[in-house]
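S.,

Sequence below, as promised.
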Amino acid sequence: MRYQISGHQIDIGESLTTHVKSELGEAVAKYSDRPTDSQVIFSRRGHEYMCETTVHLSTGLNAQASGRASEIYAAFDDCREKLEKQLRRYKRRLKDHYKDRKEPVEVFGAASYILAGSDAGVEEQEPETLQPMIIAEMETQIPSLSVGEAVMQMELAGAPVLIFRPEGTSAVNVVYRRDDGNIGWIDPKTGN
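The prediction came back faster than expected:
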């Protein structure tokens, strides 16, 4: 597994880097046969250290967790425990409901945009143009998954919505968390 360990405006020593590699590698190896890479970012806000970790699995799924504590090692340990819990749940669901995936998830590229919203305190005015102002443009990937795997990916990422392509089709579907706590699935069918 490849590791990318960095600090946001703080220095990360060799001892912490070694600790992160050994502990994270051990935690991920318990629940995943082929993790590909991980990103660990440490930061500090006031007296509190924060650790944010993302692990990319060979199945195309991503597990994300974050931890906070007054000491940097404790922040990482909190983050590692949360990540381990997510991976344990993911593995249990795979064993219970799905066959092991023999090939990695197929993905295709798509454009992702962040649009500027209106300020709440500003009086509404007629815009000069009806085109929204794009403040960020990024490349994103849309995975080819089953509906169950899409729901797991959304829950692992802690995202409110996930766009995916059902395996064997070229259609695009969406799963999302509803206000009542349930999961919604949008499956647009092409009509005749």
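The mean pLDDT is 79.

Coffee later?
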